[in-house]
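Re: folding output
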Amino acid sequence: MKSSIDNLKNTDTKDFCLLNSLQLIDRQPIFCSRIVYHDVAMKERQEVMACATDRQPFNQRSIDYLRSEKWLLDYPPILSITEVSIDNLSPFSYICPIGYRNGRPEYIHVLTSEPLSESLQQHLKKSATIVSKYLNLAMDWNSRTNEIQILEQILQKASHQLRNSLSLVSLYAQNLCFGLKDSPWQEQAQVICQSVERIDLNLHELIDCSQGNCLRLTPQDLRSLVLARIDFLQPAIEQKQLNIRISDTSAILMLDRLQIEQVFDNILSNAIHFSPIFGTIECTWQVFQGEVLIKITDEGTGIASADLPNIFNPFYSRREGGTGLGLTIAKKIVLDHQGSLWAQNLNSGGAQFSLILSK
């Protein structure tokens, strides 16, 4: 996943389609190739057209006729080759749909001087398949980019609010330190001050530096990382006398450890909160070539159907006293790592959070 979309930009889409059109007209008897597609970034239909240099260029009237699609009397199945009639423009004409978006077709349209052979039809299908996959990647890239930008804006606002509260706590804690001089309670006030400083530092690291290009990626052992977070949450685990099961195997992943720790802390703390006493929480993973699928499950009551579509929304919380930011932050961090995070209910009861991370 990561290698597929890391360097993809919406501005590259037109160049990519033009390159495919140019490659098609290199194959005789194709002398003109058009690719019509929906640009997700510009939110409008686009067209690229390439014509052989030894052919007389189309006049504007002919181009307008092609773009009008009045000749497109039927919508053929995706990736099928259909001959269509183009009045006075070409002896032969073929269309290969690559998709249908917003009720309109995306397609490759070629004009030829003689019937298209079976081998060239297969070549046209391959080109259509490649363009279709690229457009799907572009749509995915655009969706992820928009989602990350929205989350960044929300988290910046949340960070500002949280830091204001932390500043107030820090001020009162420092006043306590001065007021409790030579008192046995001064040490506890100093612990509060130090904790506030650590929280503020972590908040800065997790939110202000959580953009994808600021990730501090280092090789991390997945099992050791999970064990460390379980150890961190041990008091809450012991309070409910929960049984924790994790995979015996491990994997080395390129991660920003501080941020991914926050992801596991948020998901595991939710699993602990909603687990019954003596319940079991499982954290397992499977390695698939360049990716790792991680699943965290609990034996709680599951997620209400009305809550399931909203649990990653900012300020939406199912926990009493919760801020509704934990899962929002977790999802943004995973997206910054070019991964995926989603939740579902298990048929056996309980909830399952799944995330995909690249190796």
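--- second protein (sequence, then structure) ---
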Amino acid sequence: MEALIFIISVVAAFIFSLGGVGAAIILIPILVSIGIPVNIAKPVGLFYNTVSLTGASINNIKNKRLDFKVGIPIIIFSFLFAIVGAYVSKYISNRIILMLFIGFLLFSGFMFLLHKKKSEEDYRKDIPIIKLSLIGAFAGLLSGMLGIGGGGIISPLMLMIGFNPKKITAITAFVVPFSSFSGFLTYWAMGSIDWKITVIASAGGIIGAILGTMFMHKKLNHHFVKKILAVILLIMAVKLIFKII
């Protein structure tokens, strides 16, 4: 079981770091499918996102790909609302959590799939603080409730309001560790942490995310990566639908 979790963690982090999205969105349903309770899987996913995307962000900062001014409002509100989401999740049944997860996967998948490529001049260059703050709050709330980090909601919403996908990838990789870690600390305070699984998954996540970030910037077209992520998200949504019906 431990070896399987490690391998899954490396592969998931590698694939999802290509798009700057935390791989907990795929890791959690996989862990649940192999028999780990969802309340244990969620904090594993949050810590996994924290360590894996921290490595990816360091790489982005070194290569000057990160726009800090756009990321700060999202960081502040996602951090705060992830705590709220983690507490709220105590009062929601696992079935409802899984249904929310399915909706989240479908929304993110279709947003990535349907996004149309624009020229560099068409993407916005301003900093809409209110919109970015609302995105951060919403992503943080879902992050805490579902244990996903929020990158999969930040990316499609930033696409909707007109940001460049290349900028979005670096910003989400930078934001997700903050919202993930605040949610993880809340679960830790509530006493629902399996440290063995957490350490194994996180070690794989660090390796996979660093390799994925390096590979994406050297080898792959960013829009092709978005299509790959969309397909993976939609497949997982279908799998979870069959699990709850």
